[in-house]
Amino acid sequence: MKLIISVFTILLWFNFNFSQEYVFINKFGKEISRSLFYKNLRNQTRWDSIGEDKIRYAKLGVNRYLNGKSNYEKIKTELEKITKSKIPNNQILFIDYNFKDDLYDSVAKNKWHRFKINSVKRNLKPYIKTLKEHNAFFFKLFESGMIIKTKKNSKKEFFFIDENNFFKENIFINRSMYGSSAAIKPNGEILIYNGEGSVTILVKNLKKEKWDKFFPRN
Fold this sequence. Notes:
Layout: H1 2-19, E1 22-25, E2 31-32, H2 34-40, E3 44-50, E4 56-63, E5 65-69, H3 72-83, E6 92-98, E7 111-112, H4 114-133, E8 136-143, E9 147-148, E10 159-162, H5 166-170, E11 180-184, E12 189-194, H6 198-204, H7 208-214
Parallel strand pairs: 1-4, 6-8, 7-9, 8-10
Antiparallel strand pairs: 1-2, 3-4, 5-12, 6-11, 11-12
């Protein structure tokens, strides 16, 4: 019976998404064609929302890659507040961020239960192993208002709620479907990738020859 219900839910979600009317908007707020939208999507982020008219609005945003300088010590301190643990000095901070109301995950509706969390953690294992080789600490944060069923008292837990939305307001300020990831080095250099596959792509960019393309040395 549970299987039948699950299949029905999936089919209902599939039919809803593919029968739904879309409006495509560029980053300036102007309506554009579907073909032009997907052409620009290669280099820009996307955020979808459902209007009061029940139409799905897909809007282009910022560039996939963003880079600059940050306050490493402040970020490290805020992470320690959330995780209630001390982070060793001179470590790269790698943060994967999930946004509230992200329609890619409309079935979950802002709630991550143990089954989903465990599945995602298994998929993250090889990337976390690679990050350790780069002296990087991995954290997965969720925008305030989301619900995650984690083992809060476990010292191995690395899924946390961005309780005061410090990271949403200071780093991940541009909502992106499928979330965003950021790597912050002790010297303050920060590289962000927005959109699907952000962890995979950003891990690869930690290699010196790739990183230096974003932060050229004089």
